[in-house]
Amino acid sequence: MKKKSAAAIAMARTAGMSVKNVLWLWWKLVVLVSLTLCVLAFLKLQSYSLSDSELPYSFSTSSISRRSRPLDYSGNPKVAFLFLVRRNLPLDFLWGSFFENADTGNFSVYVHSEPGFVFDESTTRSSFFYDRQLTNSIKVAWGESSMIQAEKLLLGSALDDPANQRFVLLSDSCVPLYNFSFIYNYLMATPRSFVDSFLDKKDGRYNPKMSPYIPMSKWRKGSQWITLIRKHAEVVADDDAVFSVFKMFCKRRPPLEPSKGKKNMKLQKQHNCIPDEHYVQTLLAMHDFEGELERRTITYTEWNESVTNMEKKGWHPITFSYADAGPVQIKRIKDIRNVYYESEYRTEWCRNNSTLVPCFLFARKFSRGAAMRLLSEGVVSQFDAASIMNSTP
């Protein structure tokens, strides 16, 4: 009996040890699997920002122009007027008058409109816009990366002409505040670009997922309406790396929709990033070009900053009507000599080669009636507004 008891005890101990070994092995396996999953999750998070297919080369190489462009040109340097429009140009009659007073060798015109739209005698009053639309245009939506993609397409097309040395981005509601000669000399007198650019401390539009491709220290905000020298235009047109990051992580927050109920709370936690207010400014800061900029726009915009308006839909540019485009109002804009940037406590005095100059050469948003008044009162040239009242289109 004693022998049987000893054997039973030994077997029981062996069985107990086996169970412990099995449990220990299972525990080690669980820990190993958990650690593996954590590592894989971390690597996936790191690679989530951009895959190799979405970011074809590192930022360090994006500064190298990948286009083969002719560098030599004869004659005068040109100003390229780049119109970013929805469809047609409602103020073409004003711009036609503006270009009539210029030497055709001093400017060129490019228009990004909706795909398939053609500028000809049936769609525009001015021959300066005939066939000036891009053939590779895209569908553009406000607040999306397609807006900056369209800007890049305009710059790319204009860079194909080596004589183009200044590149002015304009909307379909922009007007010139001076004649061509004044604007041309103003732009050619400086080797700098005009890019409204300031630190974005309050809006929270920077998405941490952009790092390390776009460090927060280089994040900038400013007006979409830029004027670039050729060197900077090439950087913007040729960039793919930073644009890819913007396309993925800089997106407009969806508007509130009562039908979605509690889901609205989740939607409103997303970063509200407007690409065209950040892209060029941030890209040039990343290339350390800020010392080569006049950090201001030369296109005036008047904003509705009322508390009521902010609560409902945010700040929006005011549209100038016929009554708003008189000599007094235009002189007020022309007399502006400095711009204050609250986020940087910076007053930007408007200078051109150390000379104090008017801040703005263009203004927006102007209605057709306001543009007619500018012409009638000789801001651009003497003009009979009645001459287009019954004309087409």
TrEMBL record:
InterPro entries: BC10-like, Glyco_trans_14. It is found in: Membrane. One of its GO terms (molecular function) is glycosyltransferase activity. Keywords: Glycoprotein, Glycosyltransferase, Membrane, Transferase. It is a single-pass type II membrane protein. GO terms for cellular component: membrane. PANTHER family: CORE-2/I-BRANCHING BETA-1,6-N-ACETYLGLUCOSAMINYLTRANSFERASE FAMILY PROTEIN-RELATED, OS01G0695200 PROTEIN. This is Core-2/I-branching beta-1,6-N-acetylglucosaminyltransferase family protein.
